[in-house]
Amino acid sequence: MNRKLTAARRDVERLRLEASGATETDVQIWQASNRVADLEHAERQAAVQTARRAALVMDVVLGVVALLTMAFSLQNIHDFAADHGVQDPIAWFLAPAVDLALIAALLGDAVLSRHQLDAGPWATRLRWFAGAATLGLNVWHSVAVLDPAAIVLHAVPPILLFVLAEAASPYRSRFAETVRLAAEAAAAEVDKTEVDTPAPAEVDTAPAADPEPVDDPAPAPAVSTQTPQVETPERLRSVPAPAEVDTPAKGRLSAAAAKAAIEAAWTEGLTIREAAERATRAPSYVGQVYARLTRERGIQPSRGQMRIEGEAA
Predict the structure, then answer these.
(1) How far apart, in Å, do the first and last CA atoms of the chain sit?
(2) pTM of the predicted model, to two decimals?
């Protein structure tokens, strides 16, 4: 992914975190998660580059061996054709015809094996026939005169090319499998297993009921030695208890329900705090899920955007 585009998206995510009231710790956790994701992405890219370089080296080696074998076989096959009545320059055409057929089979197999595809039985037959023809044309004269050293000398290059061509196909398939596994690991990293964050402690906010008011008995008249007391103090009036507020405790959602709630909140354009309250999860975890959704789906829709688009549709 383009680094500038990634940096711009993270700037948007950070601004949303700050606008939603996320604490400094939440922002630091989000930044640390991004750094870990960058390191894992770099490691996967290194594995992919290694596999691709190995596949390229395999193709180069196979091409060099094929060219050397063609050059070695050219004179041998020409002499074989000339000894059996084929005139020049026609005698020079036999070796390139067989070798080009083998190279066509190798090139086609190289492309298909990278995508883990099989060209079918005729492709295998073409490789085997071209290899057998090259081997037979190279060693026929040596076999006819029963020269073991010449047989080995002329048989090694065609057999080496044939075996290398057959081995290159599974090598390419494994290299392609390595690249595919790295891509799947990158996709799986985006959808991480949910970390079970503890729900905030539930606090009973209902006020305790006041005790029943007790009417204080009227105090006995005070006796004064100077002036008689005429009035007695009023009795204390009872104050009614405030009405109890029914605030039911919110239950903690399951992992699947919380994930669905966070995705729905992201689609509706809610802030991280609002999504955390709906999903009963910590804002730090919700921020990570918001960041993943932004990477997968792009910029978060604004509040009410999806409803307007639905009505327009």
Answers:
(1) 33
(2) 0.48
Q: Which two tokens stand for residue 44?
A: 């996967």
Cβ atoms of residues 275 and 262 within 8 Å = yes
**Is 288:312 a contact under the CB 8 Å cutoff?**
no
Residue 113 corresponds to which amino acid? S
DSSP string, 117-164: ----HHHHHHHHHHHHHHHHHHHHHHHHTT-HHHHHHHHHHHHHHHHH
For residue 92, what is the DSSP state?
A: G
* Separation CA 56–CA 48 (nearest Å): 12
CA torsion sign for 123, 124, 125, 126 is positive
Q: Which residue has the tokens 């609002």?
A: 274
Separation between Cα atoms, residue 72 and residue 128, nearest integer Å = 19
Distances (CA, A) of 16 to 125, 153, 192, 209, 229: 62, 73, 21, 43, 73
Q: What gap in Å lies between CA 38 and CA 32, rounded to an integer?
A: 10
CA–CA separation, 109 and 169 (whole Å): 7
What is the spatial distance between Cα 262 and Cα 34, in angstroms, rounded to a whole number?
19
Residue-wise pLDDT tens digits, 221-252? 544 444 444 445 555 555 454 443 333 345 78
pLDDT, tens only, 119-163: 788 888 888 888 888 888 888 888 888 888 888 988 898 898 888
* 3 state DSSP class of 233: coil
